[in-house]
Amino acid sequence: SVQIVPWQQPHNRCRSHRVAFHSITDNIDTKTAIGKFFLNIMASLAEMERDLIAERTKDALRHKIENNERAGQIPYGWTLAPDGKALIVKDDEQEIIQLIRDRKDVWLGYRAICREFEGCGYKPMGRMWHQQTIKNILNKASQGI
Q1: Looking at beta carbons, which pairs linking 25-29 to residues 24 or more positions away fall under 8 Å?
Q2: Is 23 helix (H, G, I), strand (E, B) or coil?
Q3: Alpha helix ranges (H) inside the chain
Q4: Any idea what DSSP says for residue 72?
Q5: pTM for the whole thing?
Q6: Contact 27, 38 (CB under 8 A)
């Protein structure tokens, strides 16, 4: 899909009122064909650069995750290896992740899972179990993290 670059909306609004953009310092005048062309080329290059950065970032994160390396916050069920890069499975937390999956398989709600875990003394990420925490753990685990 074509993205609207930030300058296009105000620029289009100006054009609809027959107002042209003229930059003295950059020598751009949208009343001329070459000025419009240059502005569009610059906007396209800016959009391409934004997209390339997003692609590179996504690829780098995917590579780190595939190699069991840290990519952001250390997810529940894992710990950081001594090398500071790799992730190592934490068996006790992986068991809790499996318990969460089992509870969701029988249609138990997040709030009920929290209450059960608090009552059983399972160690949460923070001070106590929260519905959003359970949901986040399941989401990360379903992504293979």
Answers
A1: none
A2: strand
A3: 8-16, 33-66, 91-105, 110-120, 131-142
A4: S
A5: 0.57
A6: no
Bigger pLDDT: 52 or 20? 52
pLDDT above 90: residue 57:
yes
Beta strand pairing call for 22-23 and 78-80: unpaired
In terms of DSSP bridges, do strands 28-29 and 22-23 run parallel, antiparallel, or are they unpaired?
A: antiparallel
Give the three-state DSSP class for 139.
Answer: helix
Q: Are 22 and 29 in contact (CB under 8 A)?
A: yes
pLDDT of residue 1: 41
Tokens encoding 128: 């106590």
Assigned token pair, 58: 């996504």
> pLDDT confidence of 30, banded at 50, 70, 90?
confident
Q: What is the dihedral of CA 33, 39, 41, 44, to 10 degrees?
A: -140
